[in-house]
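Entry 14. Ran structure prediction on the chain below.
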Amino acid sequence: MNRDFTLNTYRRFLLSLLEAGYMFVTFGEVREWQVKFPHEPLPWQRYVMLRHDVDKKAGRSLLTAQIEHELGICASYYFRVTPQSNQPAVIRSIAELGHEIGYHYEDMSIANGDVEKALAHFEQWLTYFRTFYPVKTICMHGAPTSRYDGRDLWKTKDYRDYGIIGEPYFDIDFSQVFYLTDTGRCWDGFRVSVRDKVPAQAQWTQQGRVFHSTDDLIACLSDGTYEQKLGKTVMITTHPQRWTNGIAPWLQEYMSQNAKNLIKRVLLWGKGY
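Output, structure tokens:
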């Protein structure tokens, strides 16, 4: 049995997607086309938007970025302002490999819900990340233990005023785009996710369009059922800190995530979910 959430497994997963005929395009590329040609269909018939939320251990993101580069794949990497994510040498290296860089914002949590302070913080750090890459897309950080939802920042302001053309939770129609996320260190972890979820996941579960392990996904891509289960357009979100070949860090991540999942269940229970 293959050990899941290793870099070797990640490479096999990407190869399976390529062999099934999926192209890889960045979220920014999709949004640029939609903004430029709002009434025309997208030029890709079957494609994946590969997104990485760099929450911590940024060095592991460079490893996934290198694997993707070797396979001719470009992905979108979203960095937080925290030291474990905001590592300039890593950000610069990933950008040099041709990947998209974005801001993984959590300004409402940092500003304790003060909208004006949050907006000032957002402006400051967006300017910072643009020193590495011409950032055009952003993505909220779920911050499961925070009482503040980062997306609430846009109740009084429009991120388009900052030259941003895309935020996945606002600018993707998930009734048309299948969403996979490794939240919870599995592919059906949306059940214990506080914010990294979309409404369509409940319907997909009823339809049997749900996966637990990466091997489940690879099997789907190999047995020809991917057209029915994944569809032609997919957004895949990973957290690269989870993917490692080393036994000790793999076990550490495994045990840590199990503990986090328990905390998330308690939080969701407290909110009545």
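The chain has one domain: 7-270. Will compare against last week's run tomorrow.
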